[in-house]
Amino acid sequence: MSHFTMETVGWEPRIPPVDAETATPQQLAALEACPPAQRRSTYFLTLANDPGSLGERGALFNAVMYAPRGLPRAERELATAAVSIVNGCIYCTSVHARRFAELTKEPEVMQRLLDEGFSTELSPRRRAIVEFSAKLTATPGELSGPDLKPLREAGLTDLEVLDLIHSIAMFANANRLMQSLGKSVPPPSE
Amino acid sequence: MADTEDLAERLLGIAPDSPLAVLRTERASIRQHSEGAYRELVLPAEPGGVSLAERAALALRVALIERHEGLAAHFRALLQQHGDAALLAAAQHFPAPAGADRTALLLRYADMVAVQPECCGQEDIDALAAQGLSPQDIVAVTQLIAFVPYQTRLLAGLRALQEEASS
């Protein structure tokens, strides 16, 4: 059985998060650059210990996941869930699998992907996105022009491909941060 | 010219009037903050408890782990400017030294976060704190180590787009 889930997974930091009540102006400014829904999450408050990097990295993350037009948000979530599976990050997988399910209203598609892995049945466009995500994550040095062909055949535009690359790259970062600065706390098993 | 060249443009030779450069202007904020995060992590104005030489050494090591020669050469040149020959040698030596000194600890932490972050435990973070790293330093070091894998995949993806355009 797969250990990945769409249920809410907790995250416990290994260093004390910043207290939003006593945060410095610089820490608060850095948090303001982060996606609004996540500004007060334990994870972002932990990163706020170093406000310089959080401000830039939070703004980067926000643009990668939420910039208008280009790759539909659900497909950014699909890519980041796929990357998180390859990297074994249970917390990130749960968050982005859930967002994909909410945006598409197709939780069964994501559940199958979590249970059966990337060989599960997917539409050609989703298959192309998942396989490109896995390849760029696992073997970036082997990527070359022809690897974009399945994406083009599935109809991705230049901007959509660029957004996909940004999403995949962002989670090479996010998965490593999340797994080292804290630990996933899975939901109680049945 | 509105902007100076960013690291990706320099390393990949993306010409300002090329289709890829034009495409990237549609995501100007990502271009800006990719460069901003890089500078904030590797070249911060206030490096705090982690020196600029240590930052360049960690970035170099992760670029080597990721087998990205262009990034590695960039960080190696940066570390050479800081003039710490012992650190330059240590950062490029695999496996990382087993000692309990600060450099050995930082290099082993870089290897773990870059390659198998799932193996990180409370004791690894506590060991950094015991070497005098503050919570801010620990976050900065981890952000830096985790940022080079972002750069590697960004560069690999942009290069694939370049290759596609020229084929």
From TrEMBL, chain A:
Keyword Oxidoreductase annotated: yes
GO molecular function: peroxidase activity
Highest taxon in the source lineage: Bacteria
Signal peptide per UniProt: none
Domain Carboxymuconolactone decarboxylase-like, first and last residues per copy: 60-131
Record has Oxidoreductase as a keyword: yes
InterPro entries, per the entry: AhpD-like, AhpD_core, CMD-like, Uncharacterised_peroxidase-rel
Keywords per UniProt: Oxidoreductase, Peroxidase
Pfam families, per database record: CMD (PF02627)
Protein name (record): Peroxidase-related enzyme
UniProtKB/TrEMBL annotation, chain B:
InterPro entries attached to this UniProt entry: AhpD-like
Protein name stated in the entry: CMD domain protein
Biological source species: Teichococcus aerophilus
